[in-house]
Specification:
Elements (H helix, E strand, L loop, with lengths): L1 E6 L4 E3 L2 E5 L3 E6 L7 E4 L4 E5 L2 E4 L8 E8 L5 E11 L2
């Protein structure tokens, strides 16, 4: 499950697609039962953050794209959760 938190009002939703205004901040939260989760950017083809909470401050158009949370629910079961971040210009 991926929760997305918007600033400054800190409203929280559970979603797989989000649109934010350029210059705003967005926080993704994804938690597994075992170990730290990792956030992977499909556009950059690399891990961009290790940890349950991933925040992008001052969102730019370059931040647009798919982010995938990788985690572990127990010793043998792994999961992935995908979210699409769209960025609208000011």
């Amino acid at each position: 499950m991926v929760y997305i938190i918007f600033f400054p009002d800190q409203s929280k939703i559970n979603s797989d697609h989000i649109t934010v205004m350029e210059g705003s901040s967005v926080t993704f939260t994804c938690k597994g039962e075992k170990g730290a989760t990792k956030w992977f950017s499909k556009e950059l083809d690399q891990i961009v953050h290790t940890g349950n909470v991933f925040t992008i401050t001052n969102v730019l158009e370059i931040n647009q794209g798919y982010y995938e949370c990788w985690g572990q629910t127990n010793l043998t079961e792994h999961f992935r959760a995908l979210v699409l971040l769209d960025v609208e210009g000011i």
